[in-house]
Design brief:
- By secondary structure, the chain is an alpha/beta fold.
- It folds into two domains: 294 residues, Aminopeptidase (3-Layer(aba) Sandwich), CATH 3.40.630; 136 residues, Aminopeptidase i, Domain 2 (Roll).
- Helix content is 27%, strand content 24%.
- The protein is built from eleven helices and 23 strands.
- It has a nine-stranded mixed β-sheet with strand order 1-2-3-14-4-15-21-17-19, sandwiched between helices. It has a seven-stranded antiparallel β-sheet with strand order 8-7-11-5-6-10-9, covered by helices on one side. A three-stranded antiparallel β-sheet has the order 12-13-23.
- Helix 2 crosses helix 11 and helix 6 crosses helix 11.
- The two termini are 43 Å apart.
């Protein structure tokens, strides 16, 4: 026989904000569906390790769902499904709503670039009969984490004849991989005296790519020559073609289940593909929404969103303006009535390193998608602080769809912080708030997320696109 709750317990249930592990609130069928959804997400992680590959994945999936390339001169009607490919490194997808654009659009903005190691414009050299590549790291990384792990090489090379050649080495069984070497502990006495941030310096992130010389007893740099010979045979490239290339080194391993209970996914690139994939999946399953639904998968967030494929550029604004123009509307009238979820990750509370987070205002694995009212650092510098009114609407959407959600900040005040694309979207006069998945080991070569949190992101984004 159950005991009746006391007056204090009843009042606590009514007034306290409590957040249970999502597994305790979901049915077995929902948990199974979450696990199934995450199998698709793992395939996306393994297929789209760079922004170009993620765009290719998104466009292929969209085309299979009836999306067509956006034509600014063509008329649109409710239910039309469009995509705009921005230079192969960012993509906008849209489903035209029944109400047109007069009431604004429902926008979800995520990014598909991730911290990595890029090649320098003139990277290849030989030293001590070893061939190596000079690099320049991309985004905020702990440089020491990128040594002694298998790496693969991805990207494109534009040849002298104008041909664009795709490069992908190290992902398939039997293919060679690459590595950034490190010192053995026996000889690392001086290195170990460095601060952790300087344990490996940027100019020490040199990638080992070969050791066998071209078979001749004459000439110098024969190992380098042999590597260039192999590249020329496979891709028809010469050393000068490195300048006209975008080549990235990323971890060569696949995403995998983590834990005896298989409740988590470990892999490279969760930040921010863990939000990009659910937003893409949600949009592809959106038909005839009341409001026009737009998903943008952006580039360059990890370096400040600059450049013509980052959201500080005007390609998103121009896309909305073109849709508005087709309906005879000023773009500003559409943008000021639009609402956006800036779909980016937040730091998950790690009990091994508890001091950097405020437990009352931290995100936790398995407690659902995290709503981040503001990001930035210290005195809310470099952030968009979402309005109470918009947060109220977001809360109602999430609660109405049965989404498990939580709130959190990115670290204690004065501890550090970070930014998202929210401030650039807000700069377009759009209501925006950060909503994303909590991540452990963020910006490392092997990040960890909860499957249930990934699924809740999908549920949240689908509800937002289909709001009445």
């Amino acid at each position: 026989m159950c005991e009746e709750k006391s007056a204090a317990e009843l009042l606590r249930d009514e007034l306290f904000s409590t957040q249970k592990n999502a597994a305790l609130t979901m049915t077995d069928e929902e948990i199974h569906e979450a696990d199934r959804f995450c199998e698709g997400y793992r395939r996306f992680l393994n297929t789209g390790k760079t922004e170009r590959e993620a765009v290719d994945f998104a466009i292929k999936a969209a085309a299979e769902k009836g999306f067509r390339p956006f034509d600014s001169q063509a008329a649109c009607k409710p239910g039309d499904k469009l995509y705009y490919n921005n230079r192969g490194k960012a993509v906008i997808l849209a489903v035209i709503g029944q109400k047109g654009l007069a009431g604004g659009v429902k926008l979800i903005a995520s990014h598909i670039d991730a911290p990595r190691v890029d090649l320098k414009p003139n990277p290849l050299y030989e030293d001590s009969e070893l061939a190596l590549l000079k690099t320049h790291y991309y985004g905020g990384i702990k440089k020491y984490q990128w040594t002694a792990v298998p790496l693969s090489l991805h990207g494109v090379v534009i040849l002298k004849n104008g041909q664009c050649v795709a490069v992908n080495i190290g992902e398939q069984p039997g293919e060679p991989r690459f590595v950034i070497t490190d010192l053995l502990p026996h000889l690392a006495g001086e290195q170990l005296k460095r601060t952790l941030s300087e344990a490996i310096k940027g100019e020490e992130l040199n990638v080992l790519v070969g050791s066998r010389p071209f078979r001749s007893d004459k000439g110098s740099e024969l190992v380098k020559l042999n590597i260039l010979k192999l590249l020329n045979e496979k891709y028809a490239m010469t050393e000068r073609d490195f300048l006209c290339a975008e080549l990235e080194l990323v971890p060569a391993y696949e995403a995998c289940d983590i834990g005896l209970d298989r409740s988590m996914i470990g892999g490279y690139g969760h930040d921010d593909r863990v939000c990009a994939y659910p937003s893409l999946a949600a949009l592809l399953e959106t038909d005839n929404p009341e409001y026009t639904a737009v998903a943008v998968l952006a580039d360059k967030e990890e370096t400040g969103s600059e450049g013509n494929t980052g959201l500080e550029s005007r390609y998103l604004e121009n896309f909305i303006a073109a849709l508005a123009h087709a309906e005879g509307l000023p773009a500003r009238d559409v943008l000021c009535r639009s609402e956006c979820l800036s779909a980016d990750v937040n730091a998950a509370f790690d009990p091994t390193f508890p001091s950097v987070l405020d437990k009352l205002n931290a995100a936790y694995l398995n407690k659902g998608i995290v709503v981040t009212k503001y990001s930035g650092s210290r005195g809310k510098s470099g952030t968009s602080d979402a309005s109470a009114e918009f947060l109220g609407r977001v809360r109602d959407i999430l609660d109405g769809a049965g989404v498990v959600w939580q709130t959190g900040e990115l670290g204690k005040v004065d501890e550090g912080g970070g930014g998202t694309v929210a401030k650039y979207v807000a700069g377009l006069d759009v209501e925006v708030v950060d909503v994303g998945v909590p991540v452990l080991s963020m910006h490392s070569p092997f990040e960890v997320v909860s499957k249930l949190d990934v699924y809740m992101a999908y549920k949240a984004f689908k509800a937002f696109f289909n709001v009445k």
